[in-house]
């Protein structure tokens, strides 16, 4: 079944152009980044209900609003050194992280720019968790607008690589 999903994801990239290829890269980033969620659940105060919802981050119905999600994202980001001490994105580390995935170089600059542009309007929010969850909500919306948000099937197709 997994092989079929991988084949379908590959065909999707070949037949639908760059946006689908970018979404496939994003699925790798999402799957790898998400593997730290369980480790960060307790530290961030994430309830099991919100944690379950978080697995559907890219789903249209999932609202990125809970402060605890911001705390979890901070914890998860710190596992990969993606934030500076002030809990804002470390641009170089984020570029390197994204480029570490198959074809990540095609999405690295865009993702870093999008995150940076989503951080700016929230920069005056003192509560790190609230600022990060607002940045994440903006990033999700911008990703959808640009057609790089992955579908759940794409994430599931690559998930096994990162477990």
Summarize the structure in words:
- The protein has 163 residues and is an all-alpha fold.
- It has one domain: Pheromone/general odorant binding protein domain (Recoverin, domain 1, Orthogonal Bundle).
- 66% of the residues lie in helices and 0% in strands.
- The protein is built from nine helices and no strands.
- The chain has helices spanning 2-16, 18-34, 37-44, 48-54, 67-79, 91-99, 108-119, 128-146, 152-159.
- Mean pLDDT is 83; it is low at 1-18.
Describe how the helices and strands are arranged.
Blueprint: H1 2-16, H2 18-34, H3 37-44, H4 48-54, H5 67-79, H6 91-99, H7 108-119, H8 128-146, H9 152-159
Helix pairs in contact: 1-2, 1-9, 2-9, 3-5, 5-8, 6-7, 7-8
Major sheet characteristics: none
Output the structural class: mainly alpha
CATH class: Mainly Alpha
The quaternary organization reads as single chain
Elements, N to C (H/E): HHHHHHHHH
Compute the separation of the termini in Å.
17 Å
Work out the strand percent: under 5%
Whole-number radius of gyration? 15 Å
Q: How many β-strand runs?
A: 0
The name of the CATH architecture is: Orthogonal Bundle
Name the helicity range.
55-70%
- Would you give the CATH topology? Recoverin, domain 1
């Amino acid at each position: 079944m997994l092989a079929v999903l991988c084949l379908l994801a590959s065909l999707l990239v070949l037949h639908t152009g760059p946006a689908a290829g970018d979404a496939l890269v994003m699925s790798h980033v999402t799957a790898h980044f998400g593997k730290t969620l369980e480790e960060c659940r307790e530290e961030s105060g994430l309830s099991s209900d919100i944690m379950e919802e978080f697995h559907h981050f890219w789903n249209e119905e999932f609202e990125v609003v809970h402060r605890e999600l911001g705390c979890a994202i901070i914890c998860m980001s710190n596992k990969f050194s993606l934030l500076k001490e002030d809990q804002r994105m470390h641009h170089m580390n984020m570029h390197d992280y994204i480029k570490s995935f198959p074809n990540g170089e095609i999405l690295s600059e865009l993702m870093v720019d999008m995150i940076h542009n989503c951080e700016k309007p929230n920069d005056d929010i003192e509560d790190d968790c609230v600022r990060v969850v607002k940045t994440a909500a903006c990033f999700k919306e911008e990703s959808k607008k640009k057609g790089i948000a992955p579908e759940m099937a794409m994430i599931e197709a690559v998930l096994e690589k990162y477990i």
